[in-house]
Hints:
The protein is an all-alpha fold. The protein has a domain at 29-98. 78% of the residues lie in helices and 0% in strands. α2 runs antiparallel to α3 (60-75). The model has no long low-confidence stretch (mean pLDDT 85).
Amino acid sequence: xxxxxxDAVGELEAAADRLQRLRKHPPVDREAVDSVADAHESVLGVxxxxxxxxxxxxxxxxxxxxxxxxxxxxxxxxxxxxxxxAFLAADDHVKTGGVSKSLTERD
Length: 107
């Protein structure tokens, strides 16, 4: 007759075995992860580069240049990158979202 603690020990041992197998052979394609990470880092680079000018209310030209740079970066992400649709959706948002709404909310 097994006890509840025997069942728990068996479950923990099975989970440990599964974890060890997953660490040896992850179910994720490393190339896919690397391509998403590269795309993400490209976008972060644009955001970091333009943070000050893009958020300066007195620098509309800086905002426009930031928006163009970000859109170009987002648009250059290859379609075969996993979840590339998310990057394209962000690009659409940047292109169609304007400052007019935020300007009216500011006042």
